[in-house]
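Notes continue from the previous slide.

Worked example: a multi-chain complex. Inputs as given:
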Amino acid sequence: MPVTIKDIAKAANVSRGTVDRALNDRGGVNPDVAAQIKAIAAELGYKPNTIAKALATHANPIRLGVLINSLGNPFFDKVLDGIRHAQENLRDFGINVEIRKIRGYDPQRQLHEIKLLRDTDIDGMIITPVSDEKVRSELNSMIRNGIQVVCCNMDIDDVNYQAYVGCDYYCSGQTAGEIIGTTTHGEANLAVITSSHALYYHEMRVKGCESVLQQYPNIHICEYIEAGDDEDISYHEVKRLLKQNKKIDILYFVTGGTTGGLQAIHELDQEERLKVYTFDQIPAVIDDLKSGLVVATIDQQPFAQGEISLRTLFESILSRQTPARKRIITELNIKNRYNISY
Amino acid sequence: MPVTIKDIAKAANVSRGTVDRALNDRGGVNPDVAAQIKAIAAELGYKPNTIAKALATHANPIRLGVLINSLGNPFFDKVLDGIRHAQENLRDFGINVEIRKIRGYDPQRQLHEIKLLRDTDIDGMIITPVSDEKVRSELNSMIRNGIQVVCCNMDIDDVNYQAYVGCDYYCSGQTAGEIIGTTTHGEANLAVITSSHALYYHEMRVKGCESVLQQYPNIHICEYIEAGDDEDISYHEVKRLLKQNKKIDILYFVTGGTTGGLQAIHELDQEERLKVYTFDQIPAVIDDLKSGLVVATIDQQPFAQGEISLRTLFESILSRQTPARKRIITELNIKNRYNISY
DNA sequence: ATGAAAGCGCTAACAT
DNA sequence: ATGTTAGCGCTTTCAT
């Protein structure tokens, strides 16, 4: 039989209330007694019963805020699905989730939304942060005020968050490089379509790929396009590129802009001679995996990222403990036309 | 505020006890009243609070048995890890798990163990069943006696189980075929190493691969080896094959026997000229992904299979409902040297 | 600072 | 067949 608060109370000769106060640092208990109680709890190997805890807390549910750059980006819809799934599973635990979606990566806009969410009196927040000084300090100030933060999909330096949940960007680039290398026969010219060299994590995908392609000297990286995560720009830039540089055989789409780029290829009727490598399983990619234009895509488990983010945040608030690992890295999975999973 | 048993009791003008009895079909309640109560519950959109349910049931925990063919098979160790992980997470819900491991796929042996487990008075069982008439009827008899069954990793026909949790074998074969096709340049000769043509699900992996390779006429399947899921046999057979047929360029390992086969390749110093494709991320495969001998391996998420099996079984017993889907298919994921996840 | 007791939603044993 | 009540482990309010 597991040890309960009752057992500790008996062993320490105090009431259950005092044990609860001591163990959860609620204050109003003699420091010596508290120490004594904690010692006994440790000795007995006490583990609080999450179920009972949740049932008792049920009256005033934990309030969580979610701020995701999902508008116009189908990838983040899956992250949201994961969040909602976790929310549904945690329903009985007493949980209250307020989701706000925004478009794009403008720091000002994000900062504004963060403040709005913060003022709704939440216990924790899930966010895909942009690397910006003001965002950074706003998040740190929230954390100091007891609002716990979990970063989902995008990491950010110098923020004292509870956890980062997302992929290893450099590794995803390496993985892409290896697929490109093993599936390319003979000489080939490659173009990279990225968001912006300034976006550190996306740039890691470029670097990772480059490092592996050094081992495949038959593949020449000869163009870099910055499309700013914008489908329109990507569409026009890819069109321009393909008209201008007829030697391109391979397109490597690092992030947002894939849908626009694929459309450009179709309009120019270049499906036959081109090979494309992408990330994530968004609708346009799935279509072109089936058509054969996209050879492979690398999935980073957006659903799991959402689900784990919410679970982690919830548990760390409920248990008042920081998660075991600060960086929770989701698996990278290669998908071809036969093992698509959405 | 969610609706509770109390609300239903008030609306139906009966006591909470009666509502509980009616909703859970415990008997001893007037059929008309029961129907009335159920109608009200449905109308109010009542969802039982799992947390409270678990807390109340906590005194007599749910007892589960697990029968896994894990001995000598590192793949199944990961399935077990998943089971243990779920067990740990469900600890507070009141759960009791008895795990028995056996070696190989002998029906007699499995039947014996099933009976032993059944007699320990369990509420449910997780099993990797072998396709055998006696196993089939024993499982069905258990199910009729109220012991719920979840099949993990291996499906079985004509058994009225709660769920099958595992991969789609045919699809995994197709996925392998596509990788082999896209990463092979020029003419190539392929050898298939399988357990036995009689094992239906493993044979599906062969068929799936063959169907895709028809689109790659440069690849010729010229040898089939049956290694009976035995590392020793596989080792010797692969050695024999490589000595005898010098034209082989590609080895496709369908299942158990991979470790032995890889060892044979190393001993014959054939790493340079051969390319190998495998399933799962077992230690030997990971080593040879890194060494470059194995081009890619297909993972079927053994950890998730274990974890989901236990969760599904537990939930269906606790909630007295059959799971939403009877076949829970785990994702197939391609792994190369850069995105290995174990 | 500490104790006592009510209550979270549900189950199960005991009454009627 | 139905109602009443104690209790699962924990939190929280109210006394002391």
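Summary box: The longest strand of chain B covers residues 219-226. Chain B has a mean pLDDT of 93.
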